[in-house]
Specification:
There is one protein chain. It is built from three helices and 29 strands. By secondary structure, it is mainly β. Strands 21, 23, 24, 26, 27, 28 and 29 form a seven-stranded mixed sheet that branches. Helix 2 packs antiparallel against helix 3. It is flat, with a radius of gyration of 28 Å. The termini are far apart.
Length: 436
């Protein structure tokens, strides 16, 4: 057959075959970077970063698609596929302490999951809320002092988390601070002068109307209530110069307690340290202690309204499920237990709101067996003020916080004899039910 003349009917089909191969090769040469073509269009694409891997013999540039979540069969590796199994890193909680023409920043370490490995951090500084930001050089340190600032001027800061090759894998919420020659600048552009010691302002996300307990070095320092949108802010003043460990937890409408989020904070006399971006992890519970294999088990809890909750079920192969929260932050997921093996399992939850990711919350256990057994509500111990199943120093500290104070919110739980006040009689009742 000659390509110099129009094909005859006799040799038409071979000629079309060659043409088809040529068209196939031409169509197959489109680059993912171009993402345009006169012959096709891509609807609802999923773009995935490539080039991640650490091996002397190979490098993975693409992704495996079209498989079910958590399905694989290999003795040497486990494939975890699907949107909910994408790697993620928690967002740091950032503290800002002002000084003379400077702001000292510190933050919690980011935790990486499913392949992300937080390696370095870089601080963004801006004169306007929301940026643009000027970034410092990457560092593995969890603190940085920004100098050369103008006293009385509000500055805004964020912290970016980088992986080993410099990719941004998480970004903190923004905090603000106002340097001053004496006295401290707080968040939100205001200036706060502290007399007789330093102060700490803590703010973040919890559950609507929930109580948020703040512990300072394992002792209750404050108890506040989140607003109807689940945001909270509390100030602790009169602190001596030094380093403290602050911890926070919240409690949902069903009485389930969240896991605790903790971070170190440095306090200097006359200054205010602002800690922003605290994201309380979701609570979690189940409706059955044992579920018959093939039946549903309800997994539920509470988180920040409008956030997306990812539930991780830990078994031989990790499974991930995503469910939304409603207007009060409640979520419910009915898990089909047919995907689980017989035996014990643990479930945890984390929340994502915009670009903020909470840490994983407390775990709840259940059994997949041959019958359904409803989970009995744990009988509350007298004196267990934080609902952790024990009566110990934390409960005693909570009672001391409310001792002879006007009661409100969670304070009524400390009134063990119901006489409208917390006094020595309540302390005596708590001590008599001590578990340690």
């Amino acid at each position: 057959m000659s390509f110099g003349s129009f094909p005859t009917r006799r040799n038409l089909f071979p000629w079309l075959g060659v043409l088809g191969i040529a068209l196939f090769i031409a169509a197959g040469s489109a680059s993912a970077d171009e993402f345009t073509s006169a012959n096709y269009r891509s609807l609802n694409p999923v773009m995935s970063a490539g080039g991640y891997g650490a091996s002397a013999s190979f490098k993975l540039y693409g992704e495996i698609s079209g498989t079910a979540v958590g399905t694989s069969s290999s003795a040497s590796f486990t494939e975890t596929a699907g949107f909910f199994a994408f790697p993620y890193a928690t967002t740091p909680v950032v503290s800002a302490t002002v000084g003379n023409a400077q702001v000292a920043l510190s933050w919690t370490a980011s935790q990486g999951f499913l392949g992300w490995n937080p390696t370095n951090y870089t601080v963004g500084e801006a004169a306007v809320s929301g940026g643009p930001y000027a970034y410092t050089s990457p560092t593995s340190s969890l603190s940085s002092t920004i100098t050369g600032l103008t006293n009385g001027t509000v500055y805004y800061f964020i912290v970016r988390v980088l992986d080993g090759v410099g990719n941004v894998i998480a970004t903190s919420t923004q905090v603000s601070a106002t340097p001053a020659s004496s006295g401290g600048g707080g968040g939100g552009g205001g200036s706060i002068t502290t007399v007789g010691g330093g102060s700490v302002v803590l703010s973040g996300r919890a559950y609507p109307g929930s109580s948020v307990t703040v512990l300072k070095d394992a002792q209750v320092a404050a108890i506040t209530t989140a607003d109807s949108k689940a945001n909270f802010q509390v100030m602790i003043s009169g602190l001596s110069t030094g380093d403290y460990i602050f911890s926070l937890y919240s409690e949902d409408t069903a009485g389930n307690r969240s896991s605790m989020v903790s971070f170190p904070t440095a306090v200097t006399s006359g200054n205010t340290t602002t800690v922003g971006g605290i994201f309380i992890a979701p609570t979690i519970d189940v409706d059955k202690s044992e579920v018959k294999q093939g039946d549903n088990i309800a997994i539920f809890g509470q988180s920040y309204p409008g956030s997306a909750v990812t539930i991780a079920v830990h078994s031989d192969a990790g499974l991930f499920f995503k469910t939304p929260t409603d207007g009060v932050g409640a979520y419910l997921f009915n898990l089909d237990s047919s995907v689980l093996d017989l035996g014990s399992h643990l479930a945890q939850a984390k929340s994502v709101f915009v670009n903020e990711i909470s840490s994983s919350g407390a775990s709840v256990s259940f059994l997949v067996g041959d019958e359904n057994i409803s989970k009995l509500k744990q009988q509350k111990l007298i004196g267990d003020l934080n609902n952790n199943g024990r009566v110990n120093l934390i409960d005693f500290s909570m009672m001391l916080y409310w001792y002879r104070r006007p009661l409100s919110g969670a304070g009524f739980k400390a009134d063990l004899n119901g006489d409208g006040a917390v006094d020595l009689r309540d302390v005596s009742i708590l001590v008599s039910h001590w578990t340690g």
